[in-house]
Amino acid sequence: MSTFSGLNAASTALWAAQRGLDVTGQNIANVNTAGYSRQRVDQTAMGGTAVPAIHSVSTAVDGGVDADSVRRVRDALLEARGHLETSKTARLAAESAALSGVEDAFREPGDSGIQSMLADVWSGFSELANSPKTLASRSQVLERLDTLADGIRTTRAALDQQWDQTRDGLAALVTEVNTSAASVAELNVAIRQATLSGLPTNELADRRDALVVKLSEAVGATAVPGSDGVVDVAIGGTSVVAGDKSIAVRLSGTSTPDDVRDAPPHLETVPGGAALRVGGTAAGQLNALTTIVPAYRDQIDAFARSIATTMNTAHAAGFDSTGVRGGTLFDDGRGGTDITAANLNLRLTDPSNFAASGTDPATIGNVASSDGKNADLMFKLSLDTSGLDATYRKLVASLGVQSSVATRDLEVQQVVSAQVDAARESVSGVNLDEEMTNMLSFQHAYNAAARMVSAIDEALDTLINRTGVVGR
């Protein structure tokens, strides 16, 4: 073995140790950098016979070490699992937030809720039954009925506002998705060029992976590795990033909650208009737009119609203070019967026209105003086990159960997601204790390689300057 070749081995050892120290320093510097994957130097022994054969006589073992390759430490299976769990967590969070918003709209339990307003109405009927001639009792009943109608309109308005805000949020999310997809395509180009040129791509790949995670959280995107370091990104099986090309996504469908059944909101590709099976936050928001909020809008509308029908029927069975049969209590604000929670209106405004009496004045000489039987019958509507109170309690109980289940599912999913993230972090995250150990290891390797250079230098000095001088 040539002594000079030993210097080559020692120099590569010095370079490898220096390379290891540099990479270790990079890891330590980025210990708190979000999305950073720890890096490792791949050291490969050099030398040996290039093509082993029977008659090979080379005994070279002095090739040294190759430390040019620096790789990111990542687990592809954990990364894919992380994308899946991140998407599911985001979807459940969006659905849970939507149900919480619906609960806020109903304001139950509380003094400002519809249940409390209904209780005030029943109490007003009871007081009017006991003092049907009192103008204050009649005025109080109308005031409480008007408050109830206003409370129902407020709930419906809150649901409509929540629907509009959710759609606006989804539209903003789509814009972010398009920006992220375009950035992934740009990074694919940069990584491919760097790979073909033999340049490092680890930091670029970290940036791209962070964007893929963002897309996974937003729309449930998945990544498929391609050649030359690029990745393709798909949403529900539809490719939105293929190499250096990206496809835009748009939000289509109705922009008003009244037309949800005819033209439900959805995401589709541009161009082509192919509907996407999305996940993540977008899936949760679409569920809120097409199912959660519309379902409770329908229920509050049905409840408003039930109030109008029940109250109008009961009021029409009595007589007012002048002996006239009771008229319409509630209408749609235009004198019609096309009633929803948005237009429920108290039509009766004159307290003297409230039909508190249950006796026909023609049979007793027009003294019906002294009879509060109809007001009492209207109070007894509260005792009906299948009446307005029961209907509303069922609605609120159903909402509470659904919201509670959504919250519990989210909590369980967050635990699962945290475990997967911890597993990913244990593989790709920077551990300072491990890096310190690596730093000491490379430091000792560097010292040993330097000592080897010194030893070879002394041997060469002896060989060159002292060989052949005996006897001079």
From TrEMBL:
Pfam assignment, any one: Flg_bb_rod
Record domain Flagellar hook-associated protein FlgK helical: where: 100-330
GO MF annotations, alphabetized: structural molecule activity
First-listed, main subcellular location of the protein, grouped into a coarse class: other
Keyword Secreted: yes
Residues spanning the membrane: none
Location(s) in or outside the cell: Bacterial flagellum; Secreted
Keyword terms, alphabetized: Bacterial flagellum, Cell projection, Cilium, Flagellum, Secreted
Domain called Flagellar basal body rod protein N-terminal: residue spans: 7-36
Residues covered by the Flagellar basal-body/hook protein C-terminal domain: 427-465
InterPro entries: Flag_bb_rod_N, Flg_bb/hook_C_dom, FlgK, FlgK_helical
Gene Ontology CC annotation, any one: bacterial-type flagellum hook
Similarity comment text for this entry: Belongs to the flagella basal body rod proteins family.
Annotated protein name in UniProt: Flagellar hook-associated protein 1
Originating species: Geodermatophilus normandii
Biological classification of the source: Bacteria, Bacillati, Actinomycetota, Actinomycetes, Geodermatophilales
UniProt gene name: flgK
